[in-house]
């Protein structure tokens, strides 16, 4: 895609983003932009470099580097001295970067049905379920989320839940080129607050829940909630609809504030204009449930290849979105029942004549408690838990995670997650404090090497036991301060099976 600096500046002016232009020579605004970049290390010849605020450095500090590497202009909220390329001075660099990216890629959201999923837990599974239903109903759907970016033709491992605006718009443009009709994407609180989704407008949205997470960034739950709420205030369009978990107190707030646009879903209450779910049967292999639609119709005996009450809520969320788009109930059933496994979300693997190993991304107290309270009643033997906690994250959670582990698990192996700049032994010690604080606490071991920790648990678990390994899900590396090493929980499980001559299904 190529547009001139002048064309893009005119668009930003119409969007009331542009304050002024500092030119750098005759006809300099006629130069074409070849890409939008926020990283001076990776931009190519002809790029527009967007100077965004980082957590530690300002983007304007890298404007000279961008010029040396071939940028034809910079987009910035403050003038940069001694720059020989045009400067587009904007009111807010994050917002303008989003609009500029959208324009450069041909305003792709105007050509797609856009669905956003926000909340603390359940976003990834809900996006997979929505995509499965839409694909089943011949509405080809792309996906942007924590696990993968899928443009309708190919997919790549995700770098972050909600990527930066240039990548979002590039992916959306590929979806259009690949004949997608819709896009479902996770909208994280960081992505909303940092303006990464500027340039996107949504037709449908989902709110799953809100529990304490990212409070090291947001400060408190009210700020965290306000970031999520901004999705519904600033980013919806037309006759939009939002599917809201009305069992969650924050979801209830959103439902009350935006009532004309709301479809509720619940496991607790049969409310007007809401979906209601009831669980018929549950086992380690899945759930059979009924879904009651707002008009009184009930879709019976839906077999979910998922575990947990919270995944029933995710299924209700996906069903309500599809219903609002006029999908037939049997299409909804087929889409739910045939949803592919969601990597790192209660992934189950059965060891022949041995334990069931479950891999899950749960890394917050609420998520860990939900996973353990789901697995415990379905386990015929002991629950083994292998987990740690990320460095440079909400440290107050560590003893809480330990006490939750002690409350539900029979045997605990404390290990590392992504220690980053912290000593993983210190993190493990803080988790162990929580384990020891629980009366009659479970037996536990500290084994810092994560693969060794998982193999230790698998060696000691027997038939009927469950080995639950949490925190990293589908991640494929462990991050230290000065290096990153390859690691994946499933690969560690496969290696154990190969070493022990065990069959995995």
TrEMBL record:
Catalytic activity, as annotated: UDP-N-acetyl-alpha-D-muramoyl-L-alanyl-D-glutamate + meso-2,6-diaminopimelate + ATP = UDP-N-acetyl-alpha-D-muramoyl-L-alanyl-gamma-D-glutamyl-meso-2,6-diaminopimelate + ADP + phosphate + H(+)
Domain spans labelled Mur ligase N-terminal catalytic: 32-80
One Gene Ontology term, aspect cellular component: cytoplasm
Residues bound to meso-2,6-diaminopimelate: 393, 417-420, 471, 475
PTM annotation (N6-carboxylysine): residues: 228
GO molecular function list: ATP binding; magnesium ion binding; UDP-N-acetylmuramoylalanyl-D-glutamate-2,6-diaminopimelate ligase activity
Major localization listed first in the record, in broad terms: cytoplasm
Keywords recorded for this protein, A-Z: ATP-binding, Cell cycle, Cell division, Cell shape, Cell wall biogenesis/degradation, Cytoplasm, Ligase, Magnesium, Nucleotide-binding, Peptidoglycan synthesis
Post-translational modification: Carboxylation is probably crucial for Mg(2+) binding and, consequently, for the gamma-phosphate positioning of ATP.
Enzyme's top EC category: ligase
InterPro entries: Mur-like_cat_sf, Mur_ligase_C, Mur_ligase_C_dom_sf, Mur_ligase_cen, Mur_ligase_N, MurE/MurF_N, UDP-N-AcMur-Glu-dNH2Pim_ligase
Residue ranges of every copy of the Mur ligase C-terminal domain listed in the record: 344-473
Pathway in which this enzyme or protein is active: Cell wall biogenesis; peptidoglycan biosynthesis
Record domain Mur ligase central: where: 117-321
Compartmental location: Cytoplasm
NCBIfam families xref list: murE, PRK00139.1-4
Role: Catalyzes the addition of meso-diaminopimelic acid to the nucleotide precursor UDP-N-acetylmuramoyl-L-alanyl-D-glutamate (UMAG) in the biosynthesis of bacterial cell-wall peptidoglycan.
UniProt-recorded name of the protein: UDP-N-acetylmuramoyl-L-alanyl-D-glutamate--2,6-diaminopimelate ligase
